[in-house]
Protein: Protein export membrane protein SecD/SecF C-terminal domain-containing protein
Amino acid sequence: MASKIKRILKHPRVLTLIFFIVLSLLVLPTYQPDGVEVAYVSDNSVFAGIDEGEYIYELNGNSIKTLGQYTSAVSELVPNSQVTIQTKGGTYRGLLMNTTDLGITVRETSRVNLDFGLDLKGGARVTLEPITVDGTPITQDVLSSTASVLTARLNVYGLKNMVVRTISDASGRSFIDVEMAGEGSEKVVGIVKSVGKFELKIINETVFSGESIVPPIGEPQKNVQSGSWEIPFTINTKAAGQLRDIYVAASSESPSSCTSDIDCSEGYGCASSTIAGGICLPNIRMLLDDRETFSAPASFSLYQTWKFGEVTKDLVVQTGGQELAEEVQIVLEAGRLPGEIKELRIVSQDYIDPKLGKDFLRGAIISALGALLAVGLVVFIRYRSLKITLPIILIVFSEVLIILGIASLIKWSIDLPAIAGIIAAVGTGVDQQIIITDWALRGGKEKLWNLRRNIKKAFTIIMVAASTTIAAMMALAYPAFSGLYALRGFAIVTIIGVLIGILVARPAYAKAIEIILE
Structure:
């Protein structure tokens, strides 16, 4: 038997299977450092500079390797204290004012390089149908533009772990699907429901809204002379006149001098002037859905232009860095949907608590293991032989491992339909191995030539069955044809599993069973 095992392991078909197993074992681990992963940072947190996806491995000198250690360290915090957080990206310090809430939500560091879907990780999903002004079907260009506006709006709110995609059903209706997994996802529903209301205010007085902006918004560009980043945009004549009048009225007749914003009153900022030095001028505030995203005074030259009664429709926002410039551009664009869109109608919305998602994942893993054990028991009862049962079970586990490895490589989301697809692929694989085994046993007592001929006959049956399965799944894999996007994961994973079976696993098993039964 030992010599047969050596022959099996040295055969090219089996070596190919082993190669894919090793490759899967290499790509599945995350190789991430110890610590907890930042899942969400609230807007008003003193640690708003920490990005989602960073790893916290130290809090106030306490080593953080698990979620329990993080919870314990947070419980020791007291109000009005200095907090130091060490992440892979650097050290962050903040002062807690009358609270012990850091404004940070964390999760256990994932040990596997797999992206789990909403039903396993928790999160929110909103499906929107864009309704046009004239009631005609939406064009693909307008649909893509609307999706881009939604993406920009969500980016402004710091929601990064999200997916915005356009989908269509079999009848031709078009939708926008917005998903966000994990903690903080409950904000998605409220944001996509919002109208994306842009307002420009001087101190607390509204000057104009997004309707006054004349598209398109210019791209951020770096001013070579000053080193600042600039975003040009245009407003209509009425808004330009209102901006001039309200700004001049809010400005003092004799602006006080300053060296920084600290020297100015609330609502005012320090505008640099080569003639008069720094002077305090009213801040121009940009708000998206009542959330301030940018605030700065007008330049001294623009203020002088307005003071002498001139109207300026072409404006330029100046920022200190590219990142802020891009955010301002997003705010200006996110304030208005394409003119062809009347409203975004919510077709469906779902929210799964992350804690429930963990329970679903645990239940799915238990169900999958139970199914594999049940398959092994049935196969053993059928053949009453470990030398046949064990290879079948090993092939089953190797197929599952390779499917997960490929899912990791292509960044395919593992959700409940995908797990159902894995189970379906495994079930199909076991059926095919039983066909190979039965045909092989027919020639087991005859010559080797008959054994190989019977295995070839089995492969003919298997290829026909596999082709039928793949053809059936192709319709589900293409949602524009079937309209069943929720089942796409099931179809894709089933196809991957069947292809792995007929191209890698089944040839290896056939050679192994051929050598075993010689």
About this structure: The chain has a mean pLDDT of 81. The two ends are 11 Å apart (CA to CA).
